[in-house]
Amino acid sequence: QVRLVESGGGLVQAGGSLRLSCAASGSFVSINAMGWYRQAPGKQRELVADITSGGSTNYADSVKGRFTISRDNAKNTVSLQMNSLKPEDTAVFYCKVVDRTGLNVQSTYWGPGTQVTVSS
């Protein structure tokens, strides 16, 4: 059974930093992309950043230059270093893992989410 456990959320003042971590455990075939999404109240869930097994990264324009995603393939972990946080970054952050289970077949897993609140 796959389990994703997120940690590192909390309350921080604008301009501060937080580091989110996600540990994936269970039976995987071949983890491809790992990433972070967020959902603010009244808004749709959106991509924050993701990273492939080869290390290619992709960021939302709103976080470029402030957030850095990284992963440890051996430990099946993905982290998000968030600097220069803004009140508009306030959201529930979700970890996402995509497991390639076959030719053109993949399974997607989500963590339960961790709250990030940035005060002005």
Explain what the structure shows:
With 120 residues, this protein is mainly β. The protein has no helices and eleven strands. The chain has strands spanning 3-7, 10-13, 18-25, 31-39, 46-51, 57-59, 67-72, 77-82, 91-102, 105-110, 114-119. The strands form two sheets. Strands 2, 4, 5, 6, 9, 10 and 11 form a seven-stranded mixed beta sheet that branches. Strand 5 (46-51) and strand 6 form a beta hairpin. The radius of gyration is 14 Å and the shape is elongated. The termini are far apart. 30% of the residues are buried. The mean pLDDT is 96.
Task: Furnish the topology, listing elements before pairings.
Blueprint lengths: L2 E5 L2 E4 L4 E8 L5 E9 L6 E6 L5 E3 L7 E6 L4 E6 L8 E12 L2 E6 L3 E6 L1
Parallel strand pairs: 2-11
Antiparallel strand pairs: 1-3, 3-8, 4-5, 4-9, 5-6, 7-8, 9-10, 9-11
How much of the sequence lies in strands comes to over 45%
Number of strands: 11
Radius of gyration: 14 Å
> With helices defined by DSSP (H or I, 4 residues minimum), what is the helix count?
0
Order of helices and strands: EEEEEEEEEEE
Instruction: Determine the fraction of residues in helical runs and give it as a percent range.
Output: under 10%
Label the overall shape: elongated
Short description:
The chain has 120 residues and is an all-beta fold. 0% of the residues lie in helices and 59% in strands.
